[in-house]
Amino acid sequence: MDFSSPPYALKEASVTRVMTRVLLALVPAIAVYVSVIGPAILVQLGVASAVALAGEAVMLRIRGKPLAPFLTDGSAVVTAWLVALVFPPLAPWWLVAVGVLFAIVIAKHLYGGLGQNPFNPAMVAFAVCIVSFPALMSQWPNQGLQLGFAEQAGIIFGFLPRVDALTAATPLDALKTALKLSEDNVNVASLLADQTVYGHFAGRGWEWIALAYLVGGLWMWQQRVITWQIPLAFIGALGAISGALWLYHPAQFASPLFHLFSGSAMLGAFFIATDPVSSATTPRGKLVFGAGAGLLAYLIRVFGGYPDGVAFAVLLMNLCVPLIDLYTQPPIFGMKDGQ
Amino acid sequence: MRSLFKFKGGVKPPTQKTQSVGEPIAAAPLPSHVSIPLHQSIGGTPRPIVQAGDRVLKGQKIGEADGWISAAVHASTSGTVVHVGPQVVPHPSGLAAPCVVIEPDGLDTWIDRQPVDISALTPEAIREALRDAGVVGLGGAVFPTHGKLTASKTVPMEELVINGAECEPYITCDDLLMRERAEDVVRGAALFRDLLQPKRVLIGIEDNKPEAVAAMAAAVKAAGEGFEVVAVPTRYPAGGAKQLIRVLTGKEVPAAKRSTDLGVQCFNVATAYTAWRALAYGEPVVSRVVTVTGNVERPRNYEVAIGTPFAELLALTGPRADTQGIIMGGPMMGFLVPDAQVPVVKATNCLIAHSTALFPPPPPEMPCIRCGECARACPHELQPFEMYWFSRAKNFGKTQEYNIFDCIECGCCSFVCPSRIPLVQYFRFAKSEIWAREAEKNAAESAKARFEFKQFRDEREKQEKAEKLAKAAAAQAAKKAAEAAAQAGAGENPATDVPALDPAAQAEAAKKATIQAAMERARVQREAAQPRNIENLSPTQEAQVASVDARRSDTGENENNQ
Fold it and tell me: E strands along B235-297, which residues?
């Protein structure tokens, strides 16, 4: 007789189910990515997934853990996809592999594997690579890739030369550079009017991907995979500070709309800052965590040295999680104020 | 319509109740024997007052309450006592406990049932009568009912809550009881009302039982009472006393307080029913309604004699061939009994024939991903995943900081956990470890206190002895001195005047010296005793530590095996 413990009735739930939903929620954005930028991202997703699973398998072997339940839990693939999505689409395959391996081996398994990593693995990968390979990490196509799938894959795998003309800076980076170079002569509104770079509101092509992240994120919320606190606080804080500075000096600061839909703001708000393992867990703590990440992302991207600030913002907030959780413990049943 | 409150958390497992409500409550046939555990309620274990060979009648007291928080137990049928001693009882441990085993004579002859004139009794006498009739909470907690029927001295009673929520899946015994015997339930509620004098009586029933709601409302009307019958939203664990109180009154009873401190008290409908039967019909608690369901052909509710073996009861419903084990209680808080021969007790509200098709074993435990689903499901608004980390790390102080003793073990957290962590098991482990440690600490402290007192007593005795000796020596010295003085006085001694003081001074000095010596001895002994104190206690402490460690490593192994 199997003396498993109560409760005997269990909801249908598993880590795999959670992770699968995260992957599904990324699918709309990937579809938009393929259509507006190019199918290179599919190659990157494939490379990243394969490397992540291989790295996961090796680490599980070394740590003496069973392979099957952990390789099928989906967490390594989620990390892989996030790494691929925050790297430039034509980054060489080995750069993506280095990022993914760093995420899986160092950020995840050396800290104890699934559920134990204090830092978001995909963001660790991004931070490591942008510090180590700044040039390669800054080459972004500013419009759809005018190349066939074979050529895109060829560039990624190094069979074809990297054509510099294909790559430029991201809209965020372009705006920052333009503002820096032109001192006081130019204003944001006239810069953003250039739709070949900045699209309709936040970067040609990229804005639609960001919108698709938003849609996927809302679906995850509806599916109870994530809660509303972190995305809302992230978007709220980013919107508030960018809005305040935009109102203060519209010629020097871009609008909240631009900031919310450029870079990895939407991806960060719904898919990265919400990583349950490395983010705050209490309802109030999530608000603090999300708001902190949104605020830092803005400060780094506008006043810092990097084109986007989401990765560093999330990592910095990851550092604060134990403290945030400790000081935001909710009152328990029967122990609330006024009782 | 009363406006309701919400409790946070909770889950909605499939209710699985329709299977067992098709047929009315049936009387289960007399079993081959009844094995009646003496300890069937919270509190003391009643003393057996029968022995093997005694003839007993149905309703005859066989166990006397041994304190105020205790309740009598009675023979559930007429027959012969064949054994008084340890028998297997429904507890997950499978341990035996003292039982009275009766072989029925088949006649099921009642004692002379004497209805009690309630109006003539003082509240004190009514509470005593309930204790002697073995009335305990039948919702599952089996707390002696009379112990809950005293209002707080400082807080006026506002609400009396009668719990007919029955939130656990599969269980329908309260539903059927309310449908079929609403009148007696209402009279029982009125009895509690008379004792507690609340402003309002609220009967809470989950809204998935419209027939019971209607029957109770009709019975309340027929009885001319002003009780409110309230349909509460179906959400597990709405039937937890604290959750139902919250839903009906908005009050949250913290773990450290009694509900009467907030002017509210809660009883299960079956408790109200048995209380009324006990007083108005003179029938002590010798049977209860039990839902028999799960992997069986004919799920149904039975009125079952206390002490009936599970196997015999289950057989009435036709368990299917793939049945593996029996769950007592519901699928959320119940447990698999270690032996199908365990008897039905007052806490047995439901038997579920278990099969792996019905309850597939959970997939292997995965690491916690801190998703927080458990915290969102916890009706007591705890952070189960934090308590889990600390339970696992055996950091029990931290588990208490995260309020582990507010956990009601409802199972909502385990129910939703995507990593399939048996969270409730971890919390039970942590709680029992904390209790064990406290017991050890108390034992060690009292041992130390006893030892120190013995030391003090030994020393005091030695000192007294030394003083006595010193006194005796002084007396001797004084006597000698007096004799010497007498002799000297007889002869003409020029130094008479000065040495005349000598004997007294000598005696004084001798006395002082003796006391000094005694004190010195005592001090040396005390110092010598001090290290011995550590040497003596150390092995016991080491043994205690070793036993704790052994237990730890055992549970550690179990964890790894899971």
Answer: 264-268, 287-294
Q: Are residues B278 and B379 in the same domain?
A: no
Pair B273, B378 in one domain: no
Q: What is the pTM of this model?
A: 0.84
Could you tell me if B372 and B271 lie in one domain?
no
Number of domains in chain A: 2
Residue B71 lies in a domain: no
Residue B511 in any domain: the answer is yes
Separation of alpha carbons B188 and B167, rounded Å: 21
Owning domain of residue A274 = 169-328
Interface residue B387 vs chain A (CB under 8 A): no
Element (H, E) at B352: strand B350-353
Read off the CATH number of the domain in which B177 is found.
3.40.50.11540
DSSP A252-312: TS--HHHHHHSTTHHHIIIIITT-TTTS--SHHHHHHHHHHHHHHHHHHHHHSSSS--HHH
Give yes or no: residues A147 and A277 share one domain. Answer: no
Residue A333: list chain B partners with CB under 8 A. 7-8, 242, 246, 252, 254, 379-382, 406
* Same domain (yes/no): B256, B369: no
Two tokens, residue B259: 């509900």
Kindly provide the ipTM of the predicted complex, given to two decimals.
0.90
A-chain CB neighbours of B370 within 8 Å are 115, 276-277, 281
Residue B147: give the domain boundaries: 120-282
Question: Which residue from B242, B359, B402 is facing A9, i.e. has the nearest CB?
Answer: B359
Residue A336: inside a domain, yes or no? no
How many structural domains are present in chain B?
2
Q: Along the 562 residues of chain B, how does pLDDT read in single tens digits?
A: 678 999 999 999 999 999 999 999 999 999 999 999 999 999 989 999 999 999 999 999 999 998 889 999 999 999 999 999 999 999 988 889 999 999 999 999 999 999 988 889 999 999 999 999 999 999 888 999 999 999 888 999 999 999 999 999 999 999 999 999 999 999 999 999 999 999 999 999 999 999 999 999 999 999 999 999 999 999 999 999 999 999 999 999 998 889 999 999 999 999 999 999 999 999 999 999 999 999 999 999 999 999 999 999 999 999 999 999 999 999 999 999 999 999 999 999 999 999 999 999 888 899 999 999 999 999 999 999 999 999 999 999 999 999 999 999 999 999 999 999 999 999 999 999 999 999 999 999 999 999 999 999 999 999 999 999 999 988 888 888 888 877 776 655 544 444 455 666 677 777 777 778 778 777 777 666 554 444 444 556 666 666 666 665 554 444 444 3
Q: Tally A–B CB contacts below 8 A.
A: 145
The radius of gyration computed from the CA coordinates of chain A, to the nearest angstrom, equals: 21
| Same domain (yes/no): A255, A196 | yes
Regarding whether A211 and A114 lie in a shared domain, the answer is: no
Q: Which of A15, A113, A224 sits opposite B419 (nearest CB)?
A: A15
By the CB < 8 Å criterion, does A1 face chain B?
Answer: yes
Same domain, A162 and A301: no
- The kind and range of the H/E element at B401 are helix B396-401
